[in-house]
Amino acid sequence: MSKYILKFEKEDSVKFVSHLDLIRVFDRAMRRAGLPMGYSQGFNPHPLMTFAHPLGVGIASESELLEMTLSSEIPPATLKEELNKTLPGGFKILKAVLIEGKNNFSTLAFADYAIKLEGEFPKESLETVFRGFSELVVDKKTKSGIKKTDIKPFVIKFREIEKGMLNVRLKTGAENLKPDLLVNALQEYIPGLKVNRSIILRTCLLNQQEEPLFEQYNI
Amino acid sequence: MSEFISNSLDRVLPLVQKPSRYTGGELNSIVKEKDKITSRFAFCFPDVYEVGMSHLGIKILYHQLNRRADTWVERVFAPWDDMEEKMREQGIPLYGLESRDPLNEFDFVGFTLQYELSYSNIVNMLDMANIPLYSHERAEGMPFVCAGGPCAYNGEPIADFIDFFLIGEGEEIWEEVLDAYAIHKKEGGKREEFLLKIAREIEGIYVPRFYDVEYNEDGTVKSITPNKEGVPEKIRKRIVLDFDKSYYPDAFVVPFMDIVHNRVMLEIFRGCIRGCRFCQAGMIYRPVRERSPETLCKMAEKLINSTGYEEMSLSSLSTSDYTGFEKLANGLIDMAEDKKVSLSLPSLRIDNMSLDILKKVQTVRKSGLTFAPEAGTQRLRDVLNKGVTQEDILRSAKMVFDEGWSNVKLYFMMGLPTETDKDIIGIARTGYSVLDCFKKCESPKKANRINVTVSVSSFVPKAFTPFQWEAQNTMEELMRKQQLLKDSIRTKAITYNYHMSQVSCLEGVFARGDRRLSKVIELAHKKGCKFDGWDEFFKYDAWMEAFKEAGLLPEFYSGRKRSFDEVLPWDMMDIGVSKKFLINECKKAYKEETTPNCRQQCSGCGAASFGGGVCHE
Question: Between chains, do B14 and A27 touch, taking CB under 8 Å as contact?
């Protein structure tokens, strides 16, 4: 069994493919390519694949990470090339590496998102308004149900690079804030902000030191 | 418009369940440049994505007709109610998945009629597409609304909504219709001219407006007569004669989400030799035509390569009767192992040969053995011409129990012609005899426990069967019989499932209904009826109100025993099998006489007139 880490993108055209469907997408692409996907033992074998973090439905990404186990070793470049031939449109492997030993994605701590908002905006910049909040309390789903939570501490960075275009860094993983919840909160608390459409792109997964996760695998 | 729809979808899809139902973009879906296309065809399956994408017919026609440079076929499914609400709210019309263009811009909007309870969804989809409901209301420039599939053999309940029906197998008729349309579009002509042309020149085309239906005082049909010259008195169904050479796709559209049947399907043959008297499919798809094992193995390989599906299965009315079964099964088992795919085999008659094969196929362990005796006594089985005997069942049960399998499913029906309480109790007896067989099993591999499932549904008489003149049992009769059976099963080792609901009553009305029912369907739709095949949506009371308002009685259609002389609303269809044969079979049923299968002896049903298939082997 050989383990690989893949960095891939999920474009806007397939942003509504759910996380669970993603496993099916990769499994079938591997089969079409005739590549030796590894499966678990037992009565209902499933493909040996783990994703660094589930991507919310409706969100695209430039940089997702996936760990895949193959039943025999092939050059990573071949894995990348062949999968890119068979993956459905909208999915693309950017890099693949072979890794030794154990892996876990628990070093994940943050994610960067580029959020484009379309609609009506207040006169002041969203960044200024956001900094002005001492807290931002919304209903958030937690393990023990829906609770009123202050999500401001989950937002590590918040920049408005042009009107309606935000670059944010959010806590991701064990402590997690979904970008669409942030957008809803902004709409709720910022008078003059009316969002007709939001286009969200995850641009990077980061570790506790705010370094890109893929760097630890040299990809 | 498609840009408006795309932008709207971005807003709306995060708010609905299973957005993948509405996006398109799946592997092997086909996108073309619309400016180069003559015929844009929206293939509409009147149910939700997961159901429609599991249907084989849409796969065949989609890929076949898309081979034409002048045609673009797109898929359309019924939006779930949460999405429908959003679509209506935001002014998003029903659109084709591939282009996101609104349906009313297409040349053809075609519905496949798989079951009668989908009719309200058809009305709803036309409404969401802003296409006038009634055929006579459609102006020049509107799409042609057409329909095909098994219910089209008696499509009269929706005839007023449909511009033309395609009777029989679509593969050949559609090529001819599209050829005719290309000429018509080029020359510029009116809708009526096109409909006349195809009604007159293409066999298998039924244009309802060219036939006048007159009724007797008592409500039965008096006559069905063409009102245009050159239009056939009887419409003869079309079939693909050389089925082995018939088109089959190299690739299927692979959905992102999970659907009902998410696997490679191989259609091994059409028709059925058995002639069970309740079965419409067995009659309308005659004569039996097979594909060769070689062709099927080639098809399987191409499909696995192009889809990456993890499972494949066989599709036919009676797989055990496929003459090349052993060769095919072994070929597919080898391929399955080689490509790491699992093979799923449908309910097979168990004998030594099939048992050997089943042992090699892993998936059977999960599903167990399935039998469809349909009736609880040999007498009633003979009435049905269902050639399964008690010995058959027990012999097979013993074989599988000896192998260590312990899941047995038995399918039955209630409400059958000549049925008595003795037959109902016979169902319980059959279940008990299987349990008994397990107890007596002495094999070392015998399983620890057994589970026998007895599944009972209610019989609905269908058009083009020997039982098309029968009265359907009422809800009350069925409930009484259901309780009787329940009381006769007194062991936990038998699980009794019954699916008997008011839905069957409605199904029975539309299965043998006439044109006047279109008003009922329109009214029911206005009252919010849709997804009638789904328990959570079915509104029996709304339907009954609709019947009342339309001045029609459901019992007239389903609960009445008809005489052989009555003109039936579907008498203008010629399916090959003759009415004379069906009447004869009905008489034999009442005498408890069986009829041999097509390979044992030809009974002259009329299907031989097509000049091929099993009749001419």
Answer: no
